[in-house]
Amino acid sequence: MKQEASYLTVDWYRELGYPVAMLCEELGIARSAYYKHKNRAKPEKEKQDELLCSIIREYHATFDGILGYRRMAMFINRLNQTYYSQGYIHRLMSHLGITARIRRKKVNRKGAKPNYVKENFLARNFTASRPNEKWLTDVTEFSISGESRKLYLSPIMDLYDNSIVEYELSFKNNNQLVFKMFDRAVSNNPTAKPIFHSDRGFQYTSCAFKSKIEKANMQQSMSRVGKCIDNGPMEGFFGTLKTEMFYGKSFSTMECLKEKIGSYIKFYNESRYQKRLKCLTPIEYRNQALLT
């Protein structure tokens, strides 16, 4: 409504004791128009818009600004048992000036010469028909102001449900970072024999890791040189994680950052709805498969 902001201003200052006539004169609106607005019956569509705007503000604050209009629509529909289109939610978010944080572009770095390499058996086939059929992994780094150290995250993603099966955090990007994560994943999933896909990082091309893969009876697969898209879902997870819990944030210590990353991965697995998973969380989707 054209004069809505003025009417709300009058409401605000009226509660503070200012006379309506003076407020209307200052704002250049007719007093009769103000009272007509106050006494009118709001259309159902306007009531719905107001309700959804309040929900959007609440979810934007609750989920720390990570929800774009597509995911905002998903969260609203899941948590309120409703159906509103993405276009409708997009229009309301634009009206409120609410947007999600923007993802930064990945910086590519050259790796060391590998001891051995494997073919790209995954071949960008990022679909899986059952849990533990295809696992992806990679390492990403974090740095914060005032700290000389870097923090490294090494996770494993299951392509069936995009869940993070296991992860390890360390201040050293070495073999132990990957080996500890892999050993725990194997121990916690003793029957899993997935295709295990990674880039050609030094940990994955070492003879020691090759022995671990063979002992676990897994098929190893590696991205081609310079082809980050060969490990696309894993790269996508890193981008999502950093956009939603790292970029634009301040962390007093590395220990605080470690705690936040762990909390985010728990949120991602258990509470973050994904459209590809029929608006379920990764764990909900995984549990459905295990029950059938």
UniProtKB/TrEMBL annotation:
Domain Integrase catalytic: 127-290
A single GO molecular function term of this UniProt record: nucleic acid binding
Record PROSITE patterns: INTEGRASE (PS50994)
Signal peptide: none
Domain of life: Bacteria
InterPro entries xrefs: HTH-like_dom (IPR025948), Integrase_cat-core (IPR001584), RNaseH-like_sf (IPR012337), RNaseH_sf (IPR036397), Transpos_IS3 (IPR048020), Transposase_IS3/IS150/IS904 (IPR050900)
Any Gene Ontology biological process: DNA integration
Function, as annotated: Involved in the transposition of the insertion sequence.
NCBIfam families: transpos_IS3 (NF033516)
PANTHER family found in the cross-reference section: INTEGRASE PROTEIN, TRANSPOSASE INSF FOR INSERTION SEQUENCE IS3B-RELATED
Protein name: Integrase core domain protein
Source species of the chain: Andreesenia angusta
